[in-house]
């Protein structure tokens, strides 16, 4: 039996990796990411230059100051002239005599500074806000007198916090990243391999090879071989996916303006890493079994798509509660998502990364995932065997289960 | 021919919900023999084969191959050509055949060598690396046949093997079956090609209403259904046999386009039947007593259903 499993694995892996389309699709992702990063970097630098230009651009404006904060010299240097008559100021803007009319209220901390200005476009209009704020903050700084005090008042101070867990320094972000990688891996693996998991048993039925193949290998060995091959293909895909990213980070970090990451500062907590690994494996087994079972019940990929989408939704729904996981992990919705098998992997991996997962919950969920995965995989194999020759027909799982029970007790089948 | 049974079916019953497809079927297939498993469409032949091969779980009874319920890992080398047959369309001919060869216990090199030799034999050596969906229907049939007979099967189960086969491939199939028989393989064949059954099969079973309607050697079945039949050509319309004195018990089995077949009772004298027909005004062009054909037996057993075959 083990020999036949190896034969299935070798065949499935070879035929997947030998297809040019596999490499094109897999390499497309890092290429697309690189292109997007490059475009974003170029756009950011372009935007920053533009923002700097706007901040320094002089405009011809009139202003009124009910607060008494604005220093006339600073306003004049920025291109402003006093205009006490609000109606006249607005009329001058509308006639094009000036670019803007700025009204500073009595209390700028509580009331907005209103600006009437010539329209320069959605983005370019922001220069008026920049100028109005620059005049006000420069005037306030002059009133304070001391540049250091003025800077503190404007932007606050830089802080550096060291948190302690007992007598140990808490890892913080450096401790979050390693277990968070499991969550990223989980999504990557499932998104990349979703179609293959679904097609694992469907393909045999669509190609009408089920009868021939089930007389040479058991359904269990065939499904096991296919799942192992999906896993191997997934690892290859991740390596192909990650290698250009790692090379790009190592050699082109500066050109791409990527943040420098001190990998030696990362903290690998053994317990959290172990929990993450077990949840990842259990979650992968559960979703794989679920998708294989759907494939065994459906006659074609087209029919299986809508049903399998339910599992994909279960993968993403917990993300909507991420803020609650952070702030209130014992909230009912978080607890439901923690223990419901198909939302558990994402929820628990997130809680594990955010250090909001206690040991008891972790153990319960891990055991639950493996037990449910085993049941689902058993069902998947049985559905596949039961429906092996049901070409072109959807199988009702309830009918299939009833028939399996009947066959075991010697009653009427199907 | 060894008499030890390779296939044993005992009191096999198969029900799907409230519908009983097979009801108390028993037969065996002896080692080295060619066994014809016959029946009209929907009579349960494919169901029986699937139950024998473990694809269906029987409702009751035992179906054994070499004394044990079939398991894919079993030592018996099996070649199975199902009625619903397909291949991995997006894979090459050679990769698919080698895959099945390895699943059947051959090592990769031996499987590859065998496949290349087979493709050469069946006239498609240049298609080894071609994707299966690029092949014509006839070429795909040859590949399916090759997969079936790989690794010298001891038991060949062929469900409607010539279905969809053109005459060239049908000839190829029959030649291969003949080779396997000569090599000592046991063959179980589901077919509607009665002339092939008469030519190849040692024993046959006719399945009707879930039960064996006839079971034994071809000669025994022919004897059970009248033994001798009379084939005649006539002009005009044959008189009603029931009204002719001297033809008591003689049945008209078929009469089409001037060619008729009569089933006389056991022991009837053919010349007396001819005399009675001529005396009743029948214009007989030719009159030939022959052993009853399986074709006519099939038509008699399955009646109108068989007319749709």
At a glance:
Chain A has 414 residues and is mainly alpha-helical.
Structure description:
The complex is a heterodimer of chains A (414) and B (309). Chain A is 67% helix and 5% strand. Chain A is mainly alpha-helical and 414 residues long. Chain A has 2 domains: 2-30 and 171-409, no CATH class; 54-151, D-Maltodextrin-Binding Protein, domain 2 (3-Layer(aba) Sandwich). In chain A, the strands form 2 sheets. A 4-stranded mixed beta sheet of chain A has the order 2-1-3-4, sandwiched between helices. Chain A has a two-stranded antiparallel sheet with strand order 5-6. In chain A, helix 3 (72-77) links the parallel strand 1 (61-65) and strand 2. The relative contact order of chain A is 0.09. Chain B has 309 residues and is of the alpha/beta class. Chain B folds into 3 domains: 1-77 and 152-218, Rossmann fold, CATH 3.40.50.300; 83-151, no CATH class; 226-291, Alpha-Beta Plaits. In chain B, the strands form 3 sheets. A 6-stranded mixed beta sheet of chain B has the order 5-6-7-3-8-9, sandwiched between helices. Chain B has a 4-stranded antiparallel beta sheet with strand order 11-12-10-13, sandwiched between helices. The radius of gyration of chain B is 23 Å and the shape is elongated. Chain B starts with a strand and ends with a helix. At the A-B interface, helix 1 and helix 8 of A face strand 1, strand 5 and helix 2 of B.
